[in-house]
Hints:
The protein is an alpha/beta fold. The protein is 33% helix and 24% strand. Helix 3 (55-67) links the parallel strand 2 (47-52) and strand 3 (74-78). The model has no long low-confidence stretch (mean pLDDT 91).
Amino acid sequence: MRSYQITEWCHELFSLQAVKGGFYIDATMGNGYDTLFLCRLAEENGQVIAFDIQEKALEATRKLLAKEGMEERARLVLDSHVNMGKYVQEDSVDGICFNFGYLPGGDHALATQPETSKKALKVGLELLKKGGVMSLCIYSGGDTGFEEKEVLMNYIKELDERKYVVIVSSYYNRKNNPPIPVLIIKK
């Protein structure tokens, strides 16, 4: 692994488990870097659906995918990740990426919230196929970050070990509330 940023770390871990050419969800589109990663993983026969509640995120992602020649591989949806189940059938998804917090370069007041993030996580787990993988980039700080981190960490700790493998990593020697990379595999 060449980078130490949480998103790249999660991508590396995700790639170890995910099948190439699959069906993926970017639950928190942001500026589109997870969407682009998933489009590359999907290859020509796969599919990606990406969600965000901000038009600015869709536009940034659309531009990035067009620049990389990947716009045909992704469907961009202006809706909350809580509503993923309206667009996707249960047990049909090979992998899901979550990157909690706010849109980089966007309005910090528009950030993921503890209860809706937990609900979206539950929905995502239902959508995953057996053997599917989910990555979480969990940040703390700001107005809701510490509460969101606590809610999410408590929720994943209670997942049934017979159904899920949950791997939590940490930047153990990094100060100032470092982000937490998490990988969940559905057995």
